[in-house]
Amino acid sequence: MGEARPSLSVVARDGDARGAIAIAVVTQGVAPDRGGLVGVALAALVQQRLAASGIDATAVGGWDGWRVRALVASPAEATATFAAMRSAILTPVSDAEPALGAVAQRSTALAAGPRATGALLEVVRCTGEARASGADGPPSATELEAWRAASSGFGRVAVGVAGAESLADAVAQSLRRGGPWPRGQPLQPSPASAAEPRAFVYDASGDIDPGAARIVLMARTPSAERAAAAASLLGDPRGPFSSRLAALDAPARLRSVTATAHVDGGCLAATLDLDARGLSVDAAGRIATAASLARQEVVVELADVAPEPDLGRSLSMRAADPRDAAERAAWWALAGQGLGPSDEASEIALLVGLATAKDAAQPAAFARNDEIRSEMDRATLAWHVPVVEARTRIERGQGEVWVLLASPCGTSTESSVDAGLDAAVALAATFQSAEMAGDAQAEPYVSPEGVGVLVHGAIHPGEAAAAQARRLADLAARPFAGEGPSPAQFTRARTLLLMRASDVEGRAMDALASALSPGHPSWVLPVGTAMGLASASDDALKMRAGALRSGPLRVAVLANVDAVQADAAIRAVDRWVARRPGESRTCPAVALPSTPRPGTYAVDRPPGALSEAILALGLPPHNQDALASATWLAAALDGRDGLLARSLGSSADGGRGGEPIWSAGVIGAPLAPAFTIRLRAPDGAIDAAVGQARALLERLRLEGPKADDWSRASSAISRARLAAMLQPRERLVDLWLSQPEPPSPSLDAMRAFAASYLHDDALLVMAARPPRVEAPTRAVPARDPRAKSRPQGSP
Fold first, then answer.
1. DSSP string of 213-267?
2. pLDDT averaged over the chain?
């Protein structure tokens, strides 16, 4: 609008019943010892003056400014209203000022409210709330005039209009005709924060329940847009920040996240509450953990957020009420006038409020001050140390990014009574992840060596590579390492696994696993058993999910751009893991493996189904040589031209004409490995097939495999490895495991293995067959006692 005139911001819009005019005034640096009273008093002065001139306007004051606004129906009314506002702001205050009564009334109300003293002064300076400062007596006419003259000048005033263009034109013409505005007191940056770099502990008794705690974290930014954009993300009640806080040992509730635009930048304030029940144990440590988490999340979000270049205008346009739109436009025109530092570094301040318990001998803030500060130092250090073991590989040009987050403890801690709980947690977390996944894919990873969630997906249009990695990593980590699955997902997962364990295949594998690994069937069957899943309660699943989160976690990432993308995924996962200072994340000690129980075990199959037999030989755990030889021997047995085909027939893909269906392999590694042969055939042929397989194993024990058997096994294993490595999922799992390439046994090693392990008396046979139906006996009619006997030989 030219020299010495306030700026005019216009939000052009149609459809409102009325347009609106607003004027914003900055009071920062004017009588700072009087705090929010300056803005409150000046707002009361102007509103009362406008009311006396017949203008229905509202004016509100804050810590470092005030705003006035009014509805207007036409350009003529806009001209008259703006002229009245200008006069109300620029007219000096005299001792006979009629509005002094209204000023005194609002000053008294402000003094009766909460005061911004001590540590809470920093909070009010951040949020801009109208709070009393302790020097809140109503101002005299002379004092009020000094405040008005210092603040109501060029550089401290901005005008906003929302409505039709004709209204904006009318206000613009009024600004031109009205002449220049006086110059107010020069603006200066806000004083440096008085809060210490470490947490400031204060007494919050009366504000929160006895024994509870309140944490307030403030971040000042040179850019008001950055603070506002970050607050929008952090304040989402269903967002990652709230979720991470809720997953802590002492869950913290996000009370509010606010961002305020100041003349020298922006300020974000996040407030969270912890109730007394959650602080009944290790209160200082739990408060410090929550505060350190909040600090990390705010710092990361402020650094990562990409605010709109003209966010203030965008926020003004989003307002439903035209008065809000005009007021926002005016205030944002004053925000960020280059008074602060030019870089984007954020200044962080942290306050911890403690409410004294009813039976405490002294205020909690005084008693725990040093303890909380010490724990805060330890917690901050803990959050700076990554806790997730990371393994990455860059595969440039691939279509998707793949992330696998899992517990390396696997199913090692499960016993017969809880076999399947880990699988249920992983499946429930996958269901939770799938609800948020959009076009990404989520699936459970369940094996004796690891339980977790696998996620993969392509990049979205306009999405940065690092943002893609963070999105996918969040999908995996949030339900598994963060908030945990919902009760509904636990129920769904347990039901699905229980149905699987109770079907025909599940019962046979259940019996086999229980015989191969007595007391620990999930070492062989990681998806669990019917007994373990049936006895699992929701509370047990919730506790198991917490135990998995508290233990070691490992993430593997297949990135498709660069190392920066992979690192973004790792950092995203690590942020979800709550940690405590000095904690040790190790897998529990694994129980000694039990000796398999050789013998024959029977399992019923439905009538009409093929009979099945599984022959198994237990192997020593963690014995790579024996495992390699068993794997190669299984490969020599398998296949259309393998040893089983020669002994049982050539039906590798189905039983034609009563021929058995067969396969060989190794299961249960590494805790309870076993060499197995699986046979299926009609009930009348299954016993013969078992006999032939046993005879084949005995011949191999005595004679050993031949050179062509070794060659055939080598080729089969090479083909299988190649097929696996062509799949990103298999490469990801291989990266997560990061195990050395299994050794290739020599022919002599295979013969030694066969001689040592293929003993018939060590064989475990699982026989699953339908019930046998006895042939009906022919009925003989009863003899009629009245009938006469005939002599033998009579016709």
1. EEEEEEEEES-HHHHHHHHHHHT-TTSHHHHHHHTSSS--EEEEEEEEEETTEEE
2. 89
